[in-house]
Design a protein that fits this description.
With 363 residues, the protein is of the alpha/beta class. The protein is built from 18 helices and 8 strands. Helices cover 50% and strands 12% of the residues. The longest helix has 27 residues.
Amino acid sequence: MKDIEVFKRFLNEAKYFRDFQYTANGRKSKGGVKIRRKRFNPLEELNEVEFRRKYRYTKENMRRIIEMLRDDLEVELFEPMKRNQVPIDLQILAAIRYFGGTEHNQLTAMAHGVSLHTLFKITRRVASALSSKASRYIRMPATLSDKERIMRSFKVLSNMPQVIGAIVQTSVCLDGSESPPAQEEQLHLQVVSDAEYKIRDLDIHLSDELEQHTAPELFSLSRIKERFEQNEFRGRIILGNDTLACSSSLFTPVRCPKNKSEELYNHAHVTTFEPANRCINMLMRRFGILQSGLQGPFGFAKQTITALALLHNMAMDWSDQSIVAEGYLSSFMPHSLNSGAAPTTSEEPRNRKDFIKTHFSGS
């Protein structure tokens, strides 16, 4: 019913009729001869404000994405097939508008002159092309200068040193079947953010992979935990909320602060951790399909989420403020996988106690 109501609402908006008059590949004349019509080109036909509202990117940045993917999506075809192929730029535009979830899927397909089936095929191609570039855009800092720069950007927030990332987790619905009856599952996401809202590490698991369906379980399966245990980041720390257990490299808030130093630490932790909340907020709001749910098998869903994380990072690199300008950040707040605080032992917070004593006792 929700999808039907969304569909009706958008159909009633008169502004969409301007899109639809360009959507058909052709129409039949009175003699039954098919007359081809020029496809609708959003980059040319829409003004900047309307374009940003529907695609969540500026036109300039969308052109950058198109040029980056053009070679990956080009396919050698025989001449008759080329005439029927959806142009590469329109494929990318359609996929990103679909990812944005700004309207019913059928409307997105109509606005780009393709069938719903073709739209789904296009989004898979685009997601595959994007996710293949993930290692270039989603990565923890490797060089000393990069690590120092990220630590400085965190420290300036509330004078908390040594922080190289912050972990936030949420979940996304997955409809594993593209036809009824639908079998809905949960995908659990763990994102490591830097202070500039970029995604530095991403882990995605099905709920079936987590025995307890909890935040600590997801963290224990993640690559980032193993990298810190192997001392790859040499004394630097990562922040998490109170659903995670404090450890030698993962610092969480003090559950019941007993003195001024611990209160100061908790205040600094909240401020320094905030970029992770804002990062996941921006990701979910820019790409509405993460809130409405993904369709298809787990492999495709994982590929899509990776592609969206990459697109998010490029938007941060380019300072694309489309979703901020349009006020899309107001209504979504990430939810943790479990609501209770993670269990801990007296030994686990030892490094955190020393850290608080060193950096917050004299404040």
